Amino acid sequence: MPTICRTATASDEPAVLEVMSLAFGRKRGSARYAQDAVRFRAHPADHQVLTVDGDVVAALHIHRHEIQIVSCIATKADVGEVSVHPDYQGRGLGTRLIPELQHRVDESVLEAIFPPQLTATGI
Predict the structure, then answer these.
(1) What are the boundaries of each domain within the chain?
(2) C-alpha–C-alpha distance, residues 106 and 122, integer Å
(3) C-alpha to C-alpha distances, 28 to 18, 19, 33, 99, nearest whole angstrom
(4) Residue 57 near residue 84, CB atoms below 8 Å
(5) CA-CA distances (angstroms) from residue 55 to 3, 59, 111, 116?
(6) 78, 106 in Cβ contact below 8 A?
(7) CA–CA separation, 19 and 114 (whole Å)
(8) 2: Cβ–Cβ under 8 A, 6 or more apart, which residues?
(9) Separation CA 58–CA 97 (nearest Å)
(10) Are β-strands 72-84 and 55-69 bridged in parallel, bridged antiparallel, or unpaired?
């Protein structure tokens, strides 16, 4: 049962919405389901997914906020909803998404400080 954590893509929308719907009891057509769909479509990369045998079984939403402090702008990320398909709950899959998110946040911070084009030229 190979599991993979990765950033969601637009093509993951149906699977992510299905997992959220089942995990939180949000019925297709409800106002909350529609809000989830709009949020996902606007920023699919703000979601991490965990797949088992290629099927999305868990998803995590990241709330990103830009905060201005004097003349600096900082990006703050909060973990939003973590949803796990009911058939996979209780196996630690939602918990597994958190360290993966931390790793990705650490990478993005380093890229912001040391952009790849700068490090590639040795600057």
Answers:
(1) 3-114
(2) 21
(3) 9, 12, 6, 30
(4) yes
(5) 9, 11, 30, 32
(6) no
(7) 36
(8) 52, 53
(9) 8
(10) antiparallel
The residue count for the chain: 123
Q: How far apart are CA 120 and CA 81, in angstroms?
A: 36
What's the CATH number for 3-114? 3.40.630.30
Count Cβ atoms below 10 Å from residue 1 Cβ, excluding itself.
4
116-121 average pLDDT score: 48
Distance CA 19, CA 101 (A): 18
Is residue 78 within 8 Å of 33, Cβ to Cβ? Answer: no
Of the pLDDT bands very low, low, confident and very high (cuts 50, 70, 90), residue 117 is: low
Least confident span in 48-52, 63-67, 68-72, 119-123: 119-123
Write b or e for each residue in 29-64: b if 16 or more Cβ atoms lie within 10 A of its Cβ, otherwise e.
eeeebeebbebbeeebebbbbbbbeeebbbbbbbee
